[in-house]
Specification:
Helix content: 25-40%
Distance between the termini: 17 Å
CATH architecture: 3-Layer(aba) Sandwich
Structural class: alpha+beta
Radius of gyration: 16 Å
Number of domains: 1
CATH class: Alpha Beta
Bound molecules: zinc ion
Strand order of the largest sheet: 4-3-2-1-5-8-7-6
Number of helices: 6
Shape: globular
Amino acid sequence: MNKKHISEQIIKYCLKMEKDGLTSGTGGNISVKNENRIYITPSGIDYSELIPEYISELDEDGNFLGIGKRPSSEREFHSKIYKTRPDVKSIVHTHSTYACVLGCLKKELPPVHYLVASAGKKVPVAGYAGFGTKELADEICSVISDSNAVFMANHGLVSVGKTLYQAYSTALYIEFVSKVYVISLSCGKPFELDENEIADAVERIDSYLGSKKNLWDK
Ligand SMILES: [Zn+2]
């Protein structure tokens, strides 16, 4: 896989993220890890203006190698997640509305719908820290060990996967379930799946989303 191929896939998913309403403006970012390099969206450039040459190349520690445009201000947490979770090969960060709502309430997403299983048995909340800081990376990594998605308090969502397809799909599913949960709470007390039901869904969704050979296979 060369940088151009990976960059084209990152851009394809950035445009999808915008079309699917998972972010607004230049908010959010996407990265892919390939061997000892991290490829990440650049800082402050509209997704519609991205070209493969703009995608930033980092070393494993998140240092910018001078290839591509200036990297996303959130490269700190991307590189730390890859170190914390060696199984992860792609990360999607969004400012999607209902994930932000739950993040502002510091409220975990319980298994109120089987698609929570794309993240795990629930979606935990990482404590607040300023954007782009090492402290934010620490907060996220303290809760991401057994979940493929995390709400960032007063900020947004981060989701991870063995492929870009898995990380992106999880971001999309968790936004959908967050919306269902917030609406359900407004008119009653939603029922939750029991331990066996959610465990079964986790196993089946992981084999569906996480068993692809290539980073972007569907
Ligand atoms: Zn953000």
